[in-house]
Amino acid sequence: MAELTFDVVVIGAGPVGEVAAERAAMGGLKVALVEHERFGGECSYWACIPSKALLRPGNLLAAAKRMPGVPIGDELDAAPVLARRDWFTGKGDDTGQVEWARGAGIEPIRGHGRVTGEREVTVGDDQVITARHAVIVCTGSVPRVPPIPGLDAIRPWGSREATSASEVPARLGVLGGGVVGVEMAQAWARLGARVDLVITGPRPLPKLPDFAGDLLLDGLREAGVRVHASSGLREVSVVDGGTALTLVDGTELVVDELLVATGRAPATGDVGLDVLGLPAGGPLAVDESGRVSAVDGGWLYAAGDVTGRALLTHQGKYGARVAGDTVAARARGAEVSTEPWSRYSATADHHAVPQVVFTDPEVTSVGLTEAREDSADRVVDIDIAVAGSSLHADGYAGKARMVVDTERGVVLGVTFVGQDVSELLHSATIAVVGEVPLDRLWHAVPAFPTISEVWLRLLEAYGL
Predict the structure, then answer these.
(1) Which among 249, 257, 253, 279 is positioned nearest to 266, based on CA atoms?
(2) Strand partners, 416
């Protein structure tokens, strides 16, 4: 039985695990990074990167059609789109990520890692690694599969299959109106598939303001997606020539592929939680520094989707920076403060989580999307109708929302929906995180003519 010793062992080498390992190594610690699939993880090969590569050409084509005088065609050429996606994912070759780890002073170890004791990780059947200071779990999340009759008789697509398919399906069914569902529905529709999107509510993205879902619904239909709203999937069966879907409202559909995009769950089913007396399959609850609260001794940490906090790559990397820095600081005996907004506290998880849905229109938000109950918060809603948006695209349609704490005079949250609004989001994030007073924000003059003028219109609508 091979035995190794490191200061820190990180399980999971996706973007979150890589960042946690890098921060710990930057702090002078000897770090092992364990991965059972591909170094670079879900985001690099099956999620964020390939999905955006599939979406971008369709967004550009739609934008070009809104600009008179631009010579364009009516359809995308799927082959080069898929080839470009494959270039970004390296066709699954993780050699570059392994080389990066070694260059960062991190030891990459390939195999399935499980916690098998205090500060102990076993990789595969016989390689035992001991951590002097900490083990950091960054194993991400896995798709949730609903118990729909007949679903187990087919091989439905998950997010991985949806982003890595080598051919455009003639008929694609999509179940779920969350981010994965709407992004993949629009991407494949614009690549030539006939897409049927099935959602349980009246509009997609139910966690966001109604206007976001309504504008996105228009965009999906413009892209050719057939949306079956206020419905659901009752039953699946195999028929000649495809898969039959029976919807809750009685509609019958036949598709070649079915994407099930009904949410994700922390990937903790096989990382050794039973050894620690914790239930497998649930999130690893952590404190603000990333330390797992339920494990004695303070040696187990977690970051990213596995914590159940904010299932977003950028937010997971933020938590990984906190966890890696905290482990390194505690290892050298430094004082660690987890007061809000300190370096060792993932405070933004609770107050300022930015998110972009890369559809057309784009949907972005940070912080609160609604007023708090029993508060003096005020919600300001306006159309995005400024010189910059009018010049950006003919018929530009977009909306903006600002949630304000009227007692303190600061922004608590912002939502933007419209073509190319994702680049506005970081300014909103800075306003929320920095708690910039509105009377000071008034002096942040937006350049003319840009879509950023919407900030001035929001402040004017508030009454400044």
Answers:
(1) 279
(2) 364, 400
- Residue indicated by tokens 């997010």: 159
Q: Which residues are annotated as a binding site for FAD?
A: 52, 113, 139-141
Instruction: Single out the residue of 393, 315, 443 nearest to residue 15, CA to CA.
Output: 315
CB-CB neighbours of 207 under 10 Å: 11
- pLDDT tens-place string over residues 243-266: 999 999 999 999 999 999 999 999
Cβ count within 10 A of residue 349: 18
The per-residue pLDDT for 74 is 85
Residue 305, classified by CB atoms within 10 Å of its CB into exposed (0-12), middle (13-18) or buried (19+), is buried
Task: Using pLDDT thresholds of 50, 70 and 90, give the confidence band for residue 332.
Answer: very high
Instruction: Retrieve residue 349's tokens.
Output: 């998880």
Q: What are the tokens at 21?
A: 């390992």
Alpha carbon distance 435, 371 (integer Å): 16
Distance CA 394, CA 217 (A): 19
Sorted by where each starts, the structural domains of the chain and their CATH numbers stand as 2-40+94-142+265-348 (3.50.50.60), 151-262 (3.50.50.60), 361-462 (3.30.390.30)
Binding-site positions read 52, 113, 139-141, 176-183, 263, 305
* Of the candidates 147, 142, 148, 154, the residue with the CA atom closest to the CA atom of residue 180: 142
Average pLDDT, the chain: 96
Amino acid at residue number 226 = R
Q: Annotate 82-123 with DSSP letters as a single string.
A: HHHHHHHHGGG--HHHHHHHHHTTEEEEES-EEEEETTEEEE
pLDDT at 71: 84
Q: Structure tokens of 319?
A: 């938590």
pLDDT tens digits, 273-306: 999 999 888 899 999 999 999 999 999 999 999 9
pLDDT value of residue 73: 83
Query: What pLDDT was estimated at residue 249?
Result: 93
Annotated binding site for NAD(+): 176-183, 263, 305
DSSP-assigned states of every residue in 314-373: HHHHHHHHHHHHHHHHHHTT-----STTSTT--THHHH---EEE-SSSEEEEEE-SSPPT
The span from the CA of 415 to the CA of 364, in Å, is: 6
Q: How many CB atoms lie within 10 A of CB 252?
A: 8
Q: Has residue 2 got a pLDDT over 70?
A: no
pLDDT (tens digit per residue) in 92-147: 999 999 999 999 999 999 999 999 999 999 999 889 999 999 999 999 999 999 99
